[in-house]
Amino acid sequence: MMKAALVLSFDTTSLQQQVHEINLMLNNISTGFSSVELWLFYKDRKPEFFPEISCPLSDIKLIKVDNAHSPESYLQLLVHLMGQYPIDLLMFSSDGSGEELATRLAYRLNGSSCLKVEDCSLTSAKLEIIKPVYGNNLTARFVLESSPYCLSVAKQPCSPVKMTQMEFLKMETITLDQTQPWWVKETLTILDPPKTGLSDADLVLVVGQGAKNKETVDILKGIANTIGAQFGASRPVVMNAWADMNRLIGASGLIISPKLCIAAGVSGTGVFSVGIKSSGFIVAINIDSKARIFQIADVGIVGDVQAVLSELEKVILVEKDKKDSSHGFIEDRTQ
Question: What is the pLDDT of residue 326?
Answer without folding.
Answer: 64
